[in-house]
Design goal:
Chain lengths: 218, 465
């Protein structure tokens, strides 16, 4: 990594906070601060201007959705800041609020994902560089709740795999590597999906995430 | 009849007499001089005129009430064959409750009679629901009964109490307005008795007037007591018929206990979730993360920094043990496994873990139901925790006994005392929740803790819910 991403962390569990710092430093990130609540996070971001913030959703004082509120506010004041929300549970409603108008630089992951260190780091890098990283769980919930079950069933098994990964925010290259197929094959699947859903083809990865999610959620 | 039985039959009568003395004089066993002073004072006492006002206003309300009941119930019964009639009867029940409320308010304001408002009418959705609820409303039917009884009481009050005042007034002014003995007088009974020519040959004379005046004085001092006697009957009728219905009150208290139980169990679940979320889940995530890091470092066998990997595995190992410990504590907090064997074993473990030396005496012939055992266990656990934290005690004692279907658990310590349920509750949110659970099964938790101790907390629980 040539210029290390600068990361700020807000997580109220000391064990997890320390663990995250250890992991990210080990992977060459530079940590601008690690805090247990949202107010200190806000001040730190004003001051240090990090590239990306990892934010726990449940934090003091009410232990409900402080992290989400803070994230929505940060999004308004610091459009360039990447935000990775980090939680023990996935609430589809939170994802919808977060992605309301723009999926660029947004991530929403289950805390469990840190166990697969490389995947987690890759997701963080994606968010820091303006991409999207949605937990497979979010995508599963959206697929499950979608009123377009009939059009999803039109997709082939392979196309469904590509759809899920596309909705998670992955690039064609990453999808190809994961499914062990050529990038050309992925492009063909993506084109098929957009045709079957009757959606205009989007260029950037995060735009097509939004397009797919909108379609599933509408 | 034995002496005991005779005493038994006399006691309620004596109790009633005592109560009447109290109601009438507000003083126990007054001496003769005091009685004389009381009689002298009473016609001018504020209470006397409050009762008189109650009598008069109550009589007006009584006429209104009985008319209402007779008309509505009468029309309702005539039309009862139709649906419409039932509606009128239901309206009568609801209306009677309202008029009963006026009487209660009157008694409260003028007599200081503290009759609590009955439970508010619990309607059900829809007109049919309302109809059914109103027709079954015990409070309403009791109000109707009161309105029916109130009328003869009011008539009695007017014929005795009110007319005595009237006569007293009439007799006292008789000498002043002089001789016309034939003037029509509504309740002029004394004037009728001491008719024209009584005591004197003349139609009216000095002695005739004097006799009537003296009678007036007697009536003047007697009237307050007659009014009070009638009002006393009314008070008793009100206490029986206009007070909260015992059954409704019981239902209400059960509903309250149920709501508390539901709230408490929801709060308990939330606490468990929080403990799991903040403790074990976080521990396990951190553990998985460290193992993940170690795994990736081992993937490249050429450049393994063994020291770093060892540190990661070490941390993970430590975290795993912590997580196990936290889970065990959490599980025990939900249900102590020792309770499966019985209360004695579970309480012994508690006593052994308490930092204050604790002795246990347990004599139970029957085993309580699991729910009761659990409540008793957690009460003792909270109380021992309080003893250890606040009491500065050198020893504590747990005594469990069984008494006619009840489990009595006593926790006493020789500490500094001065404990109160409220401060126990606030220092440990657990005990407040436990008090709710104790009440939910009709149990009782009481605390005796004078300054300088000892503190004795008694928890009574039914053996079976």
């Amino acid at each position: 990594m040539s210029a290390p991403f600068r990361v700020v962390i807000a997580e109220d569990s000391v064990i997890l906070r320390d663990g995250l710092v250890q992991l990210l430093v080990d992977r060459g990130f530079s940590i601008t601060g690690a805090f247990g609540e949202a107010e200190a996070l806000r001040r730190s971001i004003e001051q240090d201007r990090p590239d990306v913030a990892v934010i726990d959703i449940r934090m003091p004082p009410t232990f409900t959705d402080e992290g989400l509120r803070a994230a929505l506010e940060l999004r308004r004041h610091h459009p360039g800041l990447g935000i990775l929300l980090f939680s023990q549970y996935i609430e589809t409603r939170y994802a919808a609020e977060l992605l309301a108008d723009n999926a660029a630089g947004i991530g929403y992951l289950l805390k469990d994902r840190v166990a697969d260190v490389s995947d987690f780091v890759e997701a963080l890098v994606r968010v820091a560089s303006g991409g999207t990283a949605l937990d497979p769980e979010v995508v599963t919930q959206l697929l499950g709740a979608s009123r377009h079950a009939d059009s999803i069933s039109v997709l082939s098994a392979r196309e469904r795999e590509v759809l899920s990964r596309m909705a998670e925010g992955r690039s064609n290259g990453a999808i190809a590597a994961q499914l062990v197929i050529s990038e050309g094959a992925v492009e063909k699947h993506v084109a098929n999906i957009f045709t079957k859903f009757d959606l205009p083809v989007s260029e950037s990865d995060h735009r097509r995430v939004l397009a797919v999610l909108r379609y599933l959620d509408s | 009849m034995t002496a005991g039985e005779a005493g038994g039959t006399q006691t309620p009568v004596r109790a009633l007499f005592k109560e009447m003395v109290t109601v009438f004089t507000e003083e126990r066993a007054p001496r003769l001089k005091e009685i004389a002073r009381l009689i002298w004072r009473e016609p001018f006492a504020r209470r006397t005129w409050s009762e008189f006002s109650f009598l008069v206003i109550g009589a007006v309300l009584a006429v209104l009430g009985l008319s209402f009941v007779v008309v509505t119930l009468g029309v309702g019964l005539v039309l009862a064959v139709t649906f419409f009639g039932l509606g009128i009867i239901a309206a009568a029940v609801r209306g009677a409750t309202g008029i009963g409320g006026w009487h209660r308010q009157l008694a409260r304001n003028l007599l200081g009679e503290k009759i609590e408002d009955p439970e508010p009418f619990a309607s059900r959705p829809g007109f049919l629901g309302w109809l059914q609820a109103a027709l079954r409303d015990r409070t309403g039917w009791r109000s109707i009964a009161y309105l029916v009884i109130k009328f003869p009481l009011a008539v009695l009050g007017i014929l005795t109490g009110f007319s005595m005042w009237w006569d007293a007034f009439f007799c006292l002014v008789f000498p002043m307005w002089g001789g016309n003995g034939n003037s029509p007088v509504v309740f002029g009974l004394p004037v009728a008795i001491f008719g024209s020519g009584f005591f004197s040959g003349a139609q009216t004379g000095f002695f005739h007037s004097l006799a009537i005046f003296l009678v007036g004085i007697v009536l003047f001092f007697a009237a307050p007591w007659v009014v009070r006697a009638v009002v006393y009957l009314d008070r008793r009728a009100m206490r029986v018929l206009l007070s909260p219905d015992a059954l409704a009150a019981r239902v209400r208290s059960l509903e309250l206990a149920r709501a508390q139980t539901v709230d408490t169990s929801a709060a308990t679940l939330r606490r468990i979730e929080r403990d799991l979320h903040d403790g074990t889940q976080a521990q396990l995530v951190a553990l998985a993360m460290r193992l993940g890091m170690a795994k990736e470092k081992l993937e490249d066998p050429e450049h393994v920094d063994l020291d770093q990997v060892r540190r990661l595995v070490d941390d993970a190992h430590h975290g795993a043990k912590e997580a196990i410990l936290e889970l065990r504590d959490l599980a025990r907090g939900i249900h102590p496994p020792a309770l499966d064997i019985g209360l004695e074993g579970a309480l012994s473990t508690l006593a052994a873990r308490c930092t204050v030396p604790t002795e246990i005496t347990l004599t139970l012939d029957h085993r309580p139901t699991p729910a009761i055992e659990s409540i008793a266990y957690f009460c003792v656990a909270e109380l021992l925790a309080n003893v250890a934290q606040h009491a500065q005690a050198s020893r504590a004692r747990i005594i469990c006994t069984e008494d006619s279907g009840w489990l009595r658990t006593v926790v006493r310590d020789d500490g500094r005392g001065g404990a109160q349920l409220s401060c126990l509750g606030s220092s440990s949110s657990g005990l407040a929740g436990l008090t709710d659970r104790v009440h939910a099964v009709d149990g009782r938790l009481s605390i005796v803790s004078p300054p300088d101790g000892p503190t004795v907390v008694t928890v009574d629980l039914p053996l079976h819910v």
